UniProtKB/TrEMBL annotation:
It comes from the Eukaryota. This is NB-ARC domain-containing protein. Residues 206-261 form the Disease resistance protein winged helix domain. Coiled coil: none annotated. Keywords: ATP-binding, Leucine-rich repeat, Nucleotide-binding, Plant defense. It comes from Solanum verrucosum. GO terms for biological process: defense response. GO terms for molecular function: ADP binding. SUPFAM superfamilies: L domain-like (SSF52058), P-loop containing nucleoside triphosphate hydrolases (SSF52540). Residues 449-573 form the R13L1/DRL21-like LRR repeat region domain.
Length: 933
């Protein structure tokens, strides 16, 4: 009987959705035709009324039948109270006295006294054993009231910066009552900032959800978020991952909860392990792991509400048979064409076509008036959305790619995709829209920036491009971004053609695009103004966490950013005219002596974690130390790239962990930075032209250094003796340093015992490896020696490399003969942990070192540049081999796998021009998964 009730509820929902669909259709007709008479005629249509009457009547009949059956079974309706009230247990005092207050029988007397008090009198009651009457207490002091509130609201008693400004409002609301402070603190505990503001706006019941304004319905996404937070708080969901703005991106479901949910839904899931069942009438969900050839076994296709499909073809029968679908996910299915029958799925709420090869959307898709979520991420063949898409007036979320950095494929094709992409006309008609990640402007009416102003419910992320099509500040203001409090991430993109002689109005346009103070991430690209608007300040961007300014070629100064209290990530890229970074950047005033005239205890960039300065060809100085203020107290990552003229930098980096300097001519920035550094964990020095060495002083104070990389430093020739004091060093790489010639000699028992990876690449003057050092690298896992042309053959110190798992080595010089090269591998079989080997040779060497054929535990081998004509016969001794790569071997014409290699899974052939076939013995490779040329 319960199953019948469920089915009737589903039927009722279908009828309601069908009626809603027709109502939405009428709204679309009204928008398009602007004729009220059309709506009247539509709703009076006899056929529709008759059809709806019949369906409703059938549902009522079925419900009556269920009710009769319940009565026959003796079932009765039972009203269950929401809360069970336990009977009050009478208590009596051992003292018989009518004036004793506090027993249960005397509650009425207390209530009466309280109710009879004047409204202007503050009354508090406290339990005092010897008290014989009610006591009147005065109001609490403001500090005391605030103290109670803090203890109740914050676990550690520390108040966040954004709450301090609310102190006066909170204390005033409590009116000196300790109970009010405690209750209000509990009410605000674990609430979001916008909920705090709702409380302080004298609307606590609305903020809590006890009362709802009659003119507003709750937003389903907000309700869903509350349920999500409730699941997190009760550990039903866990291991939350956050993005830069601290929004949840991923989480895990507890195993027990997962098993419980699966158990509850098992009768409704199409289980591939139960394909032998005859009855699939209860199936509601058909998942990706369900066998596609079994879908026709579903007895009642009208009951299926969710379909996940990854086949390369979606037949029209599927779309017609499952017409009551609410969710259709075709992502990564490989389909190229979507049938026009998709328009028959009038109940559809969610459609995902992401990562497919669809070039054109069928027009009937725009008749999905109930559709709320439409995903077309990574559909790079799709050049435009349909003009009729504005008919889909229930749309709340549209997802499609816009970020060229999202993946490698999009980095190549994304720009072309965006430049050819076209938005539908009149997007402003989709007034329910909340998610619109990208808006591409056009010149036509209906594609201009004013369309965004009509989308009052936008939230999340929004990118606007190309903003050079906006001319006036007044046009930009029509977006009303300053009123859109739920947008937390904004990107403004220009793409000027500087070869054209046209007026640049970027400053006025950006001034008109002032965002709401709730904004957390702001990106500005290719802005050609000479200065930034006044809303770039702590007062108007108080919650900014991430700021990226790129391609601001004409700006000669950076806006005042130092007072942004929550700024964590800052990228400044392509300020080509910038010569100096000074007090303006920090937002502090300076006196005649050049120091700060403000309080010396002031902090600038107090929350900044990462700072990137890139492509600043004229930047000479970055001032800071002389200002006399504390700065960058929390900075962990600092990166300079392509700042060739830079010479002066600050040195106040208290906890800096990662430092990267690339494309700087002078070594002075490195020396300045190292003067006070003690916390460095990772150092990358790349293309610092004047750098000759890393001094002992540089490394002496940074004993926690774990990663050291020096590359493209043409004058760099040595490492300091203090290198061996870096007992935490895990990786060391020296590459493309032609004058680097040797390592320092270890003294006493001072070795790099934590070193896991050593890479030496294109160091032409290096003649020998530091064998004494390698003998004591007991943690070394990876050793790569590549293109060091003057390196003489050496013996691998097998005794000290017992953990070595990856070895890459080449013949060094053309002058080295094969016999000398082969000696390197003597004792290689003693490297018991070795699993991956890449060996490079010369084309005149017609064989491989024989020692390699003894590595029975090797799982991957890459043979590069040898003159062998076939695979060595003894290669079958590598019984654990899973991957074989043959690259730039010019002589092999065929490969014979007749010898059994049972575990070989991958065979990769690159640049072997004479190789025509790999046929012999392929049948023996029973585990083969990939064979590529």
């Amino acid at each position: 009987m319960l199953e019948r009730v469920v089915e009737d509820a589903e039927d009722a929902e279908n009828v309601f959705d069908e009626f809603r669909y027709e109502s939405l259709k009428a709204q679309v007709m009204n928008i398009r035709a602007k004729l009220i008479q059309n709506i009247c005629n539509f709703f009076s249509h006899t056929a529709f009324k008759y059809k709806m009457f019949g369906k409703i009547n059938n549902i009522n009949e079925e419900l009556r039948a269920i009710n009769n059956l319940a009565n026959d079974l003796g079932l009765q309706s039972l009203m269950v109270p929401s809360r069970q009230i336990l009977p009050i247990r009478e208590t009596y005092s051992v003292v018989v006295a009518s004036d004793v207050i506090g027993r249960d029988m005397d509650v009425a007397e207390i209530n009466e006294k309280i109710l009879n008090m004047r409204r202007d009198v503050v009354l508090c009651t406290i339990p005092i054993v010897v008290a014989v009457d009610l006591h009147m207490l005065g109001k609490l002091a403001r500090d005391h009231c605030w103290s109670i509130f803090k203890q109740r609201t914050f676990v550690d008693g520390e108040v966040p910066e954004e709450v301090v400004s609310m102190e006066n409002g909170i204390v005033e609301m409590c009116q000196g009552l300790p109970l009010a402070a405690s209750v209000l603190g509990g009410l605000l505990r674990n609430k979001e900032k916008h909920e705090w503001h709702a409380i302080l706006d004298d609307n606590p019941l609305v903020a809590e959800g006890f009362l709802r304004p009659c003119q507003e319905a709750p937003v389903m996404e907000d309700v869903g978020n509350k349920f999500f937070q409730l699941l997190l708080q009760n550990s039903l969901l866990q291991d939350v991952k956050l993005d830069e703005q601290e929004n949840t991106t991923h989480c895990k479901m507890h195993d027990l909860v997962h098993d419980l949910a699966r158990d509850i839904l098992k009768s409704k899931l199409f289980d591939p392990k139960s394909v032998g069942r005859e009855n699939f009438s209860q199936v509601r969900y058909f998942g990706w792991d369900s066998p596609k050839d079994q879908i026709d076994r579903i007895n009642e296709p009208e009951r299926l509400c969710r379909l996940f499909w990854r086949s390369n073809y979606v037949s029209e029968d599927i779309l017609l048979n499952f017409k009551f679908l609410r969710v259709l996910n075709l992502s990564s299915s490989g389909i190229k064409v979507l049938s026009a029958k998709i328009g028959k799925l009038i109940y559809l709420r969610y459609l995902d076509l992401s990562d497919t090869k669809i070039k054109v959307l069928p027009k009937p898709i725009c008749k999905l008036y109930n559709l709320q979520t439409f995903r077309i991420n990574s559909c790079f063949s799709l050049k435009k959305l349909l003009e009729e898409m504005t008919n889909m007036i229930s749309l709340r979320h549209i997802h499609f790619n816009y970020n060229y950095q999202s993946n490698l494929y999009f980095a190549v094709w994304g720009s072309r995709f965006i430049d050819q992409f076209q938005m539908p006309l009149n997007m402003g008609q989709l007034t329910s829209l909340q998610t619109l990640p990208f808006f591409y402007l056009g010149l036509e009416k209906g594609r201009q920036i004013e369309e965004l102003g009509r989308l009052k419910n936008l939230r999340g992320e929004l990118t606007i491009k190309p903003l050079q099509l906006v001319v006036k500040k007044e046009e930009a203001r029509t977006t009303y971004l300053q009123e859109k409090s739920n947008i937390y991430k904004l990107a403004y993109l220009w793409s000027h053609d500087e070869s054209e002689d046209c007026e640049i109005n970027d400053e006025h346009v950006l001034d008109g695009l002032q965002p709401h103070p709730n904004l957390k991430t702001l990106t500005i690209v290719d802005y050609l103004g000479t200065k930034f608007p006044s809303w770039f300040s702590e007062g108007l961007l108080p919650n900014l966490v991430v700021l990226k300014l790129s391609g601001c070629k004409r700006c000669k100064d950076i806006p005042s950013l130092g007072q942004l209290k929550f700024l964590r990530h800052l990228q400044l890229i392509g300020f080509l005219e910038l010569e100096s970074i000074g007090p303006t950047f920090y937002g502090v005033d300076v006196n005649d002596s050049g120091s700060s005239s403000n309080n010396l205890n002031i902090q600038v960039f107090p929350s900044l974690k990462e700072l990137v300065l890139k492509n600043m060809r004229n930047l000479i100085e970055w001032k800071g130390d002389e200002l006399g203020v504390r700065m960058f107290s929390g900075l962990e990552k600092l990166k300079f790239t392509k700042c060739p003229l830079l010479k002066i930098t600050p040195s106040q980096f208290e906890i800096l962990c990662e430092l990267s300097i690339e494309g700087v001519d002078s070594e002075m920035p490195l020396l300045n930075l190292f003067s006070n550094l003690t916390s460095l964990v990772k150092l990358i020095v790349d293309d610092v032209k004047e750098l000759t060495c890393l001094s002992d002083e540089m490394l002496h104070n940074n004993v926690s250094l774990q990663h050291l990389l020096v590359s493209l430093c043409r004058k760099f020739h040595e490492l300091p003796q203090n290198l061996y004091n870096l007992h935490s060093l895990k990786s060391l790489r020296i590459s493309f340093c032609p004058y680097f010639s040797s390592f320092p000699v270890p003294t006493r028992d001072n070795y790099l015992t934590s070193l896991q990876s050593l890479e030496l690449c294109h160091c032409d003057r290096l003649t020998s490896l530091p064998n004494r050092m390698l003998n004591h690298c007991l943690s070394l896992v990876s050793l790569n020696v590549i293109n060091c042309n003057n390196l003489v053959p050496f013996f691998l110190p097998a005794r000290g490399l017992h953990r070595l798992g990856i070895l890459q080595i080449d013949p060094f010089s053309e002058m080295v003969d094969f016999e000398a090269f082969q000696l390197i591998f003597n004792g290689i079989q003693q490297l018991l942990s070795l699993r991956t080997l890449e060996v490079r040779g010369h084309l005149h060497w017609d064989s491989l070192p024989y020692q390699l054929m003894q590595l029975s535990d090797l799982t991957a081998i890459q043979i590069h540049g040898f003159g062998i004509e076939a695979l060595p016969h003894r290669l079958h001794n590598l019984t654990s081999l899973e991957r074989l790569t043959l690259e730039r071997c010019k002589r092999p014409q065929h490969l014979d796998f007749s010898d059994t290699r049972p575990k070989l899974r991958y065979v990769v052939i690159r640049n072997c021009p004479l190789l025509e076939a790999v046929s012999d013995g392929l049948g023996n490779l029973v585990c083969l998964q990939e064979l590529s040329f």
